[in-house]
Amino acid sequence: MAGDDPSETGGEPVSRAHLSRLRAEVGDETLRRYAQAYLDLLPERLDRIGRAIRAHDTAEAERVIVDLRISSKMLGTRRLAATLTALESSLHTGLIPSTVQLARVRTEARLVAEMVRAAMDLDGLGRPDHGAPTD
User: Fold this and answer.
1) Nearest-CA neighbor of 71 among 91, 50, 44?
2) Structural domains in the chain, sorted by start
3) What is the Cα–Cα distance from 125 to 64, expressed in whole angstroms?
4) φ and ψ at 134, to 5 degrees?
5) Which end of the chain is least crowded, N or C, by CB within 10 Å?
6) Could you read off the pLDDT of 43-74 as tens digits, one per residue?
């Protein structure tokens, strides 16, 4: 599927433009709550994926991958979402994902978490002039 290859997505781990649009749509507080919930759940989701793959529980791995992929896309994490899609594709074809694939997911998730934490700490997320009010 076009755009699902991690090498094609480039750019930032999290789209700042996407976060800005999301903030405009739902408000700062809702975005912060969603981002915090995402960050709180991220380590356990990654662990569940790894455990399910090691246990050859493809159905569980796919459930968690889809859940994480959808919530990641909602935050504008194109690279992580694409990496998860590639991992899911391996499972669909009957291949056991490699440790390299799992490491790639974890690395990308770490980068996403760092960027989301930093963005949540910025009062002016998505605003010009580094936070100066525009109204």
Assistant:
1) 44
2) 14-122 (1.20.120.160)
3) 29
4) -100, -5
5) C
6) 999 999 999 999 999 999 999 999 999 999 99
